[in-house]
Amino acid sequence: MNITEFSDNVHTQQFITWLGERIAGDAKLNFTHATGQFDTLSDARDAYEWPPRKKTISTPKRELILTRNSSLAVNQKVLDQLCDGLRDCLAASTPDEELLAAWVQSILVWGGVYTRQKNGGGNAGWLSARRAAKDLAAHLREALDALESGSVTFDHGPSTLRSNAGLTKVYSLAVDDFIIYDSRVAAALAWLVMEWSRKAIHVPDHLKFACMRANEGSPKGKAPGSAKVRSPNVADFPYFAPASHLRDHRRHAVWNLRANRVLAAALVQAKALRPGASDSKFQTVRDVEAALFVIGADLRHALD
What we know:
This protein is mainly alpha-helical and 304 residues long. The protein has one domain. It has helices spanning 3-8, 10-24, 41-46, 72-91, 97-110, 122-133, 136-149, 167-174, 183-198, 246-273, 285-295, and strands at residues 31-33, 36-38, 55-58, 63-66. It has a two-stranded antiparallel sheet with strand order 1-2. Strands 3-4 form a two-stranded antiparallel ribbon. β1 (31-33) and β2 form a beta hairpin. α4 (72-91) packs antiparallel against α5, α5 (97-110) packs antiparallel against α6 and α9 packs across α11 (285-295). The radius of gyration is 19 Å and the shape is globular. It starts with a helix and ends in a 9-residue tail after the last helix.
């Protein structure tokens, strides 16, 4: 199933309509979390906070500082600057490799995913390898061409494609209406599909959004089973880990593309339900993504 077939599928369209009603506020969300309930999707968006601790982001232009638990609006100002820097760099006929790497590093630092594994892997290790080979621009342009065209499938895509919770943050700033597909957003989408399917049909395979485990793991000093839940039902939404194999990165990219289509279309329908509502909490797909980020932090209480 390519991205067009996915978008045109009757079940996809039904879910988009259902989600659009919740973005517009015409239908309740009723999501239970650790300290209460989000009655609407707007409630979740209003609760957005990032980062969990103060963060200093060095960029090629200036140092950016985010205080602990900054709001969505404050984060957006930072992302706007990172977006401008990244896009200006990529727009050059021959991008400055080191400048481009610096902007990518800044984005990864903002997202808390500039990580290096003991074996030299991780997003930091990957970026170091691209710096040494001076091929970061080529890698990003190849990936962005495939993502913008929607040509990535489970069996097809650039041989150099890297798509995971880290690089999705870079792509989200390089491409319009491209959301960050991390474990929280995936968890929220899976939960929403499950809620929709209870009143419609069984969960169609093409809407079983791929879920990833929380990086936080089980908190120290707490009982087993206290790890944050990021799948509403592992039978329908089994966990997978975007690892080093190309098939995993293609799989992540496919679900990212499907999430992009669903949220963008649902937002269009929501705006049609509330024409002229300039005070709506949801003006962009980033706004919707932020609400999902909050919902997907932990599904434990919503599943009781």
